[in-house]
Structure formats: structure tokens, C-alpha cells
Amino acid sequence: MFMWLMCYMLYPLFLGFLHLNIMFVCYMLCVLMCLYVLIYTLFVLLYILKMHNVTTLVQR
């Protein structure tokens, strides 16, 4: 089963390597962008929370 799956996964590589390579690069870029956006939003949220906490402490 596993070997068949591996063959099935490798078949497109031999079929059209360049096209698959371009698709893979695009896919990887999309994934990286999504990760970057998620991390950025997390940092922004943390920063806002930190600033909010500081302001509340100052007000007290």
C-alpha cells in the first residue's frame, strides 16, 4: 500500500517535472505567505495586548 502510494506520488514528477516544480514553488510560496501573515497577526495582537496592559497599569 505504502509503496503504491509512493509510486503514485512520484509518477507526476517523471510525467511533468517542470510544471510540477513550478506548481510546488507556487504552493510553497502561498504556504510561506500564510504562515508569515499568521505570525505577523499574532505578534501584532500580542503587542496590542501588551500596550493595553501597560496603559491599564499606568491608569491604575
Short summary:
This protein has helices at 2-15, 17-59. 95% of the residues lie in helices and 0% in strands. The longest helix is centred in the middle third of the chain and has 43 residues, at 17-59.
Low-pLDDT parts are none
How many angstroms separate the termini? Answer: 65 Å
As for the number of domains, it is 1
Give the overall average pLDDT: 80
Binned, the helix content reads over 70%
The biggest beta sheet is recorded as:
none
Q: What portion of the residues fall into strands of 2 or more residues? A: under 5%
Radius of gyration: 22 Å
Which quaternary structure do these chains form? single chain
- The succession of helices and strands, N to C, reads HH
The helix count comes to: 2
In terms of structural class, how would the helical and strand content be classed? mainly alpha
- Shape label: rod-shaped
Number of strands: 0
Keywords: Membrane, Transmembrane, Transmembrane helix
Describe the structure.
This protein is mainly alpha-helical and 60 residues long. It is built from 2 helices and no strands. The chain is rod-shaped, with a radius of gyration of 22 Å. The mean pLDDT is 80. It has one domain. Helix content is 95%, strand content 0%.
Name its key features:
0% strand, 60 residues, 2 helices, rod-shaped, mainly alpha
Task: Summarize the topology.
Blueprint: H1 2-15, H2 17-59
Helix pairs in contact: 1-2
